[in-house]
UniProtKB/TrEMBL annotation:
Superkingdom of this protein's organism: Bacteria
Signal sequence annotation: none
Coiled coil: none
TM ranges: none
Disordered: annotated span: 120-151
Quaternary organization: Homodimer. The dihydroxyacetone kinase complex is composed of a homodimer of DhaM, a homodimer of DhaK and the subunit DhaL.
PROSITE patterns the record matches: PTS_EIIA_TYPE_4, PTS_HPR_DOM, PTS_HPR_HIS
Organism name: Branchiibius cervicis
Protein name listed in UniProt: Phosphocarrier protein HPr
Low complexity composition bias: residue spans: 120-149
Listed EC numbers: 2.7.1.121
Amino acid sequence: MTVGLVVVSHSAKIAEGVVDLAAQMAADVRIVAAGGTDDGGIGTSFEKVQQGLSQAESGDGVLVLCDLGSAVMTAETAVEFVDDPAAAVIADAPLVEGAIAAAVSAQGGADLDTVRAAAEQASAPASAPAAPSAPAAPSAPAAPDQSADQVSRTVTVVNEVGLHARPAALFVQTAGEFDAELTVNGADASSLLEVMSLGARKGTELHLTGTGPQAREGVDALADLVASGFGED
């Protein structure tokens, strides 16, 4: 079971598009579109949102994301009719970025509060993307750095399109599997938006660091994932 998502938009096409995009990052998460009016027009529908809440619920709660003010009001009304008020919450987050961040967090097994926080983090200004490093000449792998409190390793991005959405989502999901604080070029390796804001392209060097009980396992897993090209051709 995972936290479910409901995407509420004035446009059915927008809601469906956001669901399609988020689902690419989170195959195991129930993500339901609740867009447009009952007759297919522009607007929102209490019945659609209520049905979406029911369909998205798998036992761990539901997060609702909305596009415009009246969509929030419709969602608030629908949430009031949920048997357990704590089982459905509305995120104060941008629709697209918030849905993607929430979906990745839910895919990783996070609880409702954590998934909501991931979505709402999308409202924070992203740091300026790091300038991509020039592709390095092939060389023998350097020995991982290690100290008493921190482990680190540097790896070069090899897949053609770099850390775009799908690889970044896989990177973040992998980081969440370990009991460690992991970073990549200073960004939180468990935050999809921070990882994507790096703008890492093919040839970019990623400096991975970790602290905590599973720091070495986490850093090695992330480095191996990057070195494998994320399974892309």
